[in-house]
Amino acid sequence: MDDRAHGELDAAQLTGLNDMDPEAFRAAAHAVVDRIADYLAGVESYPVLPPIEPGSIGSLFPEHAPEHPEPLAAILADVDRLILPNATHWQHPGFFAYFATTASGPGILGEFITAALGQNPMLWRTSPIGTELETVVVRWLREALGLPDAFAGLLTDTASTSTLIALAAAREAAGLDAAAKGLAGGGLAGEPRVYASAEAHSSVEKACMTLGLGRAALVKVEINERYEMDPAALERAIAADRASGRRPIAIVATIGTTSSTSVDPVATIADIAARAGLWLHVDAAYAGVVALLPDHWRPFAGWQRADSIVVNPHKWLFTPLDASLLLSRRMDQVRAAFSLVPEYLRTLDRASPVLDYTEYQPQLGRRMRALKLWMQLRWFGLDGLRRRIAFHLDQAADFARWVDEDSDWERLAPAPFSTVCFRYRPAALVGREDEPEVRARLDDLNTRLMDAVNRTGEVFLSHTRLGDRFTIRMAIGNLRTEARHVERAWALLRREAARLDA
Amino acid sequence: MDDRAHGELDAAQLTGLNDMDPEAFRAAAHAVVDRIADYLAGVESYPVLPPIEPGSIGSLFPEHAPEHPEPLAAILADVDRLILPNATHWQHPGFFAYFATTASGPGILGEFITAALGQNPMLWRTSPIGTELETVVVRWLREALGLPDAFAGLLTDTASTSTLIALAAAREAAGLDAAAKGLAGGGLAGEPRVYASAEAHSSVEKACMTLGLGRAALVKVEINERYEMDPAALERAIAADRASGRRPIAIVATIGTTSSTSVDPVATIADIAARAGLWLHVDAAYAGVVALLPDHWRPFAGWQRADSIVVNPHKWLFTPLDASLLLSRRMDQVRAAFSLVPEYLRTLDRASPVLDYTEYQPQLGRRMRALKLWMQLRWFGLDGLRRRIAFHLDQAADFARWVDEDSDWERLAPAPFSTVCFRYRPAALVGREDEPEVRARLDDLNTRLMDAVNRTGEVFLSHTRLGDRFTIRMAIGNLRTEARHVERAWALLRREAARLDA
Fold first, then answer.
1. Which end of chain B, N or C, is surrounded by fewer C-beta atoms within 10 Å?
2. Does the beta-carbon distance from B50 to A128 stay under 8 Å?
3. Pick from A312, A297, A295: nearest CA to A258
4. Is the ipTM of this complex over 0.90?
């Protein structure tokens, strides 16, 4: 790039030694702060989804890495020019797709400090504060979620990893001795089986792939008309597998599935797990934070009986990526699945046993995720977090009501949390929804509707299929979303539906 | 905590809605910048290892999460009071333990911007810039490392994950169909086997545990007196396993082992892998960046024939945790191991195939790791990175020479990179090293010596065992380390050795 003239190189760049001087860092970081604050103040001015095509960005960058240092001012100018216009703006209050991940102000500051400290709490010794603060924050969250102190846990990167860890522990708890002997030894009493509803998150299936259980190990249990796991079908599946010599090891129940945020009947499933002697993992990655609200305990009835639970602070607790909370009452099994301490990691000068988090996860190294959570929990307070989650629940209830009250629209699933599943279904078509032609027309109409709404740049909604119907999801959970954004989404949907249907 | 009076709550804290106001964020972030710049400027004033005992920190924090918001000033005061004094200072120029992970100034700024943007490049659509910039940065690094364009890749969190991905791909490439059918199906032609030297990193064994291959699947191949894999032993092991019905799937060769930074004979091993039809994974997590220096190609001879390679920017490329580069010439097999696209993640409005990185890793979500690397590569330039790595190589050569030239010290392994393995061995004991009593005394002496040196707080060195001898490792690679710090480490070692031996 020919903008090397844009600004001056600092001393360390000229000498080719050492890091950026702390005073140069100070000046540069102040400039970055203003850029970030401007971005956050003006994020609504960006289209949520950038109006670009795949492959259009890579060519804006040089073919080869730069040989010589460039001034920071030139790099920051390119952040404005190349990065911001080509981002999907997860921070935009009109982000209603998937499940929101907002990076809150105190969370961003927590990440900034985390990056500067460079902690690696793999061992107590490599980060005493990272290790012990993680234990504190995990306890704070566990207690705030209303779970008993039999649960301990750790912070991982994503729910995928948390669920993988849980199922690896289940593999050990079932006596497969997989960590030591592997699954291919032939000594196993039957092929392992994991049970989850047909609506469970893909991370369960992916964990089965990674762990060597295979996609074949996952039994997708039937759901009812509310997209909840049918416990009778679960029991039948377990019995049938046992009868044919397979080896059930775990059940995954979901509180807040990704498609429709349905809630599996956890208490009943816990009974089944107990009777069958199976590990129960509860995936509450999205909805788990609702357990912070005492009035909303109902979806969580029975989850305290799980062997492991995942709740993602980086979803609806406004924590910057990445932070997933894995809780388990059987941390010994988690350790059995992942503990391995080579000589070069042994801590020699401590008499007492030390908690080294690396023994509880597939990776050796790990980021300090506790600091940002600690800062956030203090800045918001539990009360502040509850208020914001309650606000999103209220907004979703409003949106669901608007859909229900408009005869041209149809809700396609219950909305127990902050996500509403719906579609445009002109009143004229009521009663004809199951005719193949109408079915196809509604799918097409709603596909184009979602696309049209997203192209406005004001909002971003995503879809799923429920009962084999194209379903638009309105997922509320961005920290910056206000009532006016939800209202605007509804107005845009109605406007674009009217246009398409004209 | 009773310091709620310490400063004032901002508007969003009082209303319990929305995020920190952007202007409040601006002010807070400027305050954080000054704190971080002060920390980096004064990091040498901290003891590298905090002089505290396990369990001493947790009790400094409240038992329960705060119910009500606290002013940011109070939180930042506690960063000074509770966080900094209890950290192991990876940023300290006297950090010579394990392998260094420095967070460079431009890297820290990259993480700060990354946190603020909240990108999740799991799909192209969820972060076009995160996706395409990752492709750019991976290409830049691949080319700078001298590897052919048959290699593509991605950024993962750690070398553990990169190696796990590589071995999962190897599992598919070997035709085990593990992702689909699992390993316990019984249809396998023999138990799988993975080969790595006895000095290979624990992450290889951990990947075997996670992947359901089991620790039993890992064959630890004999090493020579330089701690390098013996290729003849490798060939014998493969042949013996095949003869007894086992199923070899992959070989892991290491360029820069963790204990002694030894280099397996990759070219010879590549021949063996080709003859045996096995996947070759090269673990160059620490030393790989030395391939940026054209004069130092020798340890890398043959690595371009690998199926996959891991190199960690978050080690010796000064990138803040976490960033591991996985390269592979068989990305189709990586995809076969991890691809799974549920309806709610389908991108509908694109005709052309899109690169979605989530299909190449065990997790669904992922952080944008490309931005910090892009900023760093431009700020340092390849030339600047080479100079700094070369400086560390020179410093290590100096240190190795000091050890070699002092008759009271003994080097315990070659030092092909920036890590020197040595021990104190008083000249009077020369020739008696193998007597059991002397052996025990030297182990004890060096254990206490390392402890004494670390307790000075000026440096932090870690240990390993080589040839069953307690071995001190001097691992140079911190971006802020200058010649004076290496000299100081040597002076402290000699001073404390003299004291202990007195």
1. C
2. yes
3. A312
4. yes
